[in-house]
Amino acid sequence: MQVFKNIKIGVFISLVNILIQGVSVLVQNLVARNLGAVDFGYFGVLQTDYTVFCAIADFGMATLILAYFGKRATEGGLFTSVLQLRLAMTALTAAAMVIFAFTVRRDHPAFAGELVLALGLLFQHAFFDWFFICGNFWKKLLISKVLHTISYTVVMIVALHVFRVDSIPAIALAMVAAALPAFGFGVRQAFTSKVLRIGNHTLKFFRLMLKSASPYAVASIASFAYLPVGLYTVAHYAPDSFLASYNFAHKLIILASGLMVHFISSSLITLHQTDSRKLSIRDQAIFTLFIVAVSSPFWLFPEWALRIIFFAAPWTDNLLSASSYCLRILSASLVLQAMRMGMISTMLKEKRTWLYGLFISACGVANIAACIFAAHAFNEACIPLFTLSGDLLLTLVLAAYFLKNRRFTL
Question: What's the mean pLDDT in 118-143?
Answer without folding.
Answer: 83
